[in-house]
Amino acid sequence: MVVIDHQESAFDSLSIEFSGFHIPGDAAELAVLRAAKINQADCLLAVTGNDNLNLMVAQIAKIVFEVPTVLVRLIDPDREAIYRDFGLVTISPTKLAAEVFLQTLEKQTP
After folding, report:
1. For the whole model, what pTM was predicted?
2. Which of 5, 32, 65, 74 could form an S-S bond across to 90 if both were Cys, CB 3.0 to 4.6 Å?
3. What backbone phi and psi angles, to 5 degrees, belong to 44?
4. Exposed e or buried b for every residue in 38-57, given b needs 16+ CB within 10 A?
């Protein structure tokens, strides 16, 4: 497993049990992705807090490096159809949280 982040301090949040590698840099840069050996990756998770950056990194992984499995965190669920049109699988924490809130409310309502 390889974690890429442009802020080196982000690596401090990795668990002690993390046995992978970390690379400081911008995941949208081809040189950084090559340093992470993306050409050997079975899976890429684009999970920054920026939907546009996630989309860019995911497209690079899928199209340029032909990574077999690419999953994208999507903050704005209104953009889900666009990502699907690009053939990307999305997971939206915003959408998931809304669904859990609604389910919880339904259980609470008499």
Report:
1. 0.84
2. 74
3. -130, 135
4. beebeebbbebeebeebbeb
> Can you give the length of the chain in residues?
110
Number of structural domains found in the chain: 1
pLDDT in tens, 98-108: 999 999 998 88
Q: Tokens 């996630």 belong to which residue?
A: 54
pLDDT in tens, 51-98: 999 999 999 999 999 999 999 999 999 999 999 998 999 999 999 999
N-to-C CA span, the chain: 47
Residue 49: CATH number of its domain = 3.40.50.720
Half-sphere exposure of 100 (CA within 13 A, CB side): 6
Other residues' Cβ atoms within 10 Å of the Cβ of residue 33: 25
Q: How far apart (Å, rounded) are the C-alpha atoms in residues 54 and 34?
A: 17
Close Cβ partners of 100 (under 8 Å, ≥ 6 residues apart) = none
